[in-house]
UniProtKB/TrEMBL annotation:
This is Cytochrome aa3 subunit 2. Gene3D superfamilies: Cupredoxins - blue copper proteins. Keywords: Copper, Metal-binding. The lineage of its organism: Bacteria, Bacillati, Bacillota, Bacilli, Bacillales. GO terms for cellular component: cell envelope; membrane. It comes from the Bacteria. It catalyses: 4 Fe(II)-[cytochrome c] + O2 + 8 H(+)(in) = 4 Fe(III)-[cytochrome c] + 2 H2O + 4 H(+)(out). It is found in: Cell envelope. One of its GO terms (molecular function) is copper ion binding. Coiled coil: none annotated. Subunits I and II form the functional core of the enzyme complex. Electrons originating in cytochrome c are transferred via heme a and Cu(A) to the binuclear center formed by heme a3 and Cu(B).
Length: 158
């Protein structure tokens, strides 16, 4: 079979790219152990208020973990608990969140934190707050008539 040399080069490039892509994916998944974030832990959405750590929403200092603080949020139509929190500048924080009713969003405006909170699942994100100021948390999943009013605030202070 005759093949034009450009066609051949293009085929080699295509198959080569595919192999590179699959190798990167394979190494990342099986050697480095990367998994899709969140939704690995589950919770009974009817018992959120009595299940730790969601029975005490807010910021808590922790010892002996890879992060300094745990910041627990409970979302429900149409608010977050806590409504406002202060975090010391430079703190490494694990955000742990869930919802009591419907699907809500959890986006920290101006950062790359953007989680979906689903009933029955726990969403987590570890981050370091290395800029002082106020961060607005907004719901970006349409959840009902009060959706646009649903927000919370993080203050990063020295
Ligand atoms: Cu909660 Cu939109």
């Amino acid at each position: 079979m005759h093949m034009h040399k450009f066609e051949k080069a293009w085929l080699i490039f295509g198959i080569g790219s595919l192999l590179v892509f699959l190798t990167v994916l394979g190494v990342s998944a099986f050697y480095l152990g990367n998994q899709p974030p969140s939704c690995l832990a589950t919770i009974d959405p009817e018992k959120v208020d009595t299940t730790a750590p969601f029975n005490e929403p807010g910021l808590k200092k922790v010892e002996g973990k890879d992060w300094d603080y745990e910041l627990v949020y409970v979302a429900s139509a149409f608010s977050y608990s806590p409504a406002e929190v202060e975090i010391p500048y430079g703190a490494k924080v694990k955000i742990i969140a869930t919802t009591k009713d419907v699907v809500h969003g959890f986006e920290v405006a101006g950062s790359n934190i953007n989680m979906m909170l689903e009933p029955g699942y726990i969403s987590e994100h570890v981050t370091t707050f290395d800029k002082t100021g106020e961060y607005l948390i907004v719901c970006n999943e349409y959840c009902g008539v009060g959706h646009h009013m649903m927000s919370s605030k993080i203050k990063v202070v020295e």
